[in-house]
Amino acid sequence: MSPIEQQIEGIVDEILEDYRHQRAIDKLDPFVHPDKDTVIDIIYKLLRIAYPGYSRDKSYRIYNARHNLSMLIEDVMYNLNKQIAIVLRSQMDEKQAEMQAQEISLQFFRAIPAVRAVSQTDVEAFYDGDPAAYSTDEIIFCYPGLFAITVYRLAHVLYTLGVPMLPRIMTEHAHSVTGIDINPGATIGNYFFIDHGTGIVVGETTVIGDHVKVYQGVTLGALTTRGGQSLRGKKRHPTIEDNVTIYAGASILGGETVIGRDSVIGSNVFITHSIPANTTVSVKSQELQFKSRKTEPFWENQQTE
Description:
Blueprint: H1 3-19, H2 36-50, H3 65-88, H4 94-110, H5 112-129, H6 136-142, H7 144-160, H8 166-178, E1 181-182, E2 187-188, E3 193-195, E4 201-202, E5 207-208, E6 213-215, E7 219-221, E8 239-240, E9 245-246, E10 251-253, E11 258-259, E12 264-265, E13 270-271, E14 280-281
Parallel strand pairs: 1-4, 2-5, 3-6, 4-7, 5-8, 6-9, 7-10, 8-11, 9-12, 10-13, 12-14
Helix pairs in contact: 2-3, 2-8, 3-4, 5-7, 7-8
């Protein structure tokens, strides 16, 4: 064994010894945690079910729509069922987890038509609200906001069915791809439109009504997280009622904060209390200074003798 191989062996022994501290980060059994890559693969296959015809798997050469869909659902069902069973093992024994996972998987797929119905309203909101959109095809193919919303809607179903961890893996993948952070626990109504999107944060207990439009950099967050785990399950994030528009950079914080219907929240405002319906909130115009960058030659400023 060469000197470098000896050193590597020594390092391996040291790290393995360190694992014996049994910290929260020391779990060597890969079968007690979901497979993140599998969950991400499930996302994209679910999108094929949600938006048929907008993506395809070249390995599927069956042109009968029923058979094609059946194969796709069977594939997703098998993997989703397996991943749900894994995350449920922390709450119950293995047999119970497998039985519960099967029932949850069936309930999830039964909810797909309802998810598609709501997604149709989202597509309509994008098309009606963005003059830069030339077709609904363009929105489905290209818009990161719609991608983030659709992944959220699928993850939210699993969240409401009591599935731990998997919904968050799904929405955090969408977050990493789009820069849009929607917690799967949020409640979001129909016709939700995210314009541009980057930097948007929607917290777990946020409630959003119908026909709400949100621009980039908006935070719907909590006033404080100092209470840590003691705040779990409490309403920490705001409620946005129907027909509200929130412009770029606005921060709306607090579980008791309600933005009344038909209101407009201007850019860069910071709100921690409720706003009545039909209200426009904006930052008072700042004083701007203008200085010319053009300079005159030195000699033109000198007095002649």
